[in-house]
Specification:
Blueprint: H1 12-36, H2 41-44, H3 47-58, E1 77-79, E2 92-94, H4 100-136
Antiparallel strand pairs: 1-2
Helix pairs in contact: 1-3, 1-4, 3-4
């Protein structure tokens, strides 16, 4: 994780957000060990015990709002400036840079950020939650 452009920097807010996900990864690893081989035998063989630990491993999402949220799309889009008589300034526009080479590089970086966003969506909904549920259910 991190920036895709050599000119970009990682902000403190992004680092705090990353710390949430690092903690989440550690929490998930502990859950997977507990319900597969390292936990007490009655937990490993109990559906109710596995469902309880599934609930526990999902709890950190309840405090997600306490951590900064940095939008992936902010890396490839910017808000249009509102003109004095314009009602809605939410139209997204591509970020522009000077030379033709810079514009081509930016197109590639923008596409990479879009791919990175969908990797995150896949990670969260399929890998993280899907793996946890498949391990907890018989």
């Amino acid at each position: 994780s991190g920036t895709l452009s050599t000119a970009a920097i990682v902000t403190q807010s992004e680092m705090i957000e990353h710390s949430f996900y690092q903690g989440l990864n550690l929490w998930q690893a502990m859950f997977l060990h507990a319900v597969t081989w390292a936990g007490p035998e009655n937990l490993r063989h109990s559906t109710m015990g596995k469902l309880f630990t599934l609930w526990l491993v999902t709890l950190p999402w309840g405090i997600r709002k306490l951590f900064p949220v940095n939008s992936f799309s902010a890396n490839w889009k910017t808000r249009a400036r509102k003109k004095p008589n314009e009602q809605d300034a939410t139209k997204s526009v591509q970020i522009r840079v000077g030379t033709e080479i810079e514009r081509k590089e930016l197109k590639i970086i923008n596409r990479m950020y879009q791919i990175k966003k969908w990797q995150y969506v896949f990670y969260k909904h399929v890998i993280l939650h899907g793996l946890n549920i498949s391990v907890a259910l018989p």
